[in-house]
Write a structure and sequence with these properties.
Number of strands: 0
Shape: elongated
Order of helices and strands: HHH
Distance between the termini: 30 Å
């Protein structure tokens, strides 16, 4: 999720501009962040947990409590 949010930030908000200092960065980010939070953008996941465990079995080991 963090990678998706950072990608949106760089594409939608920052672009190719150079940021002079932290204050300038905050002036740019605050309105964008407020707008994005109000829109409540979500993520459409392509995998359900059982599918992810099947297709990405190395990353999602079988939980101990599953039989």
């Amino acid at each position: 999720m963090e990678e998706t949010e950072l990608s949106s930030l760089s594409i939608q908000c920052l672009g190719n501009q150079r940021i002079e200092d932290v204050e300038h960065l905050n002036e740019i980010l605050n309105p964008w962040e407020t707008s994005r939070n109000q829109k409540q953008k979500g993520i459409i996941w392509h995998f359900k947990t059982p599918d992810a465990r099947t297709k990405l079995y190395r990353l999602y080991p079988k939980p101990i409590f599953d039989n």
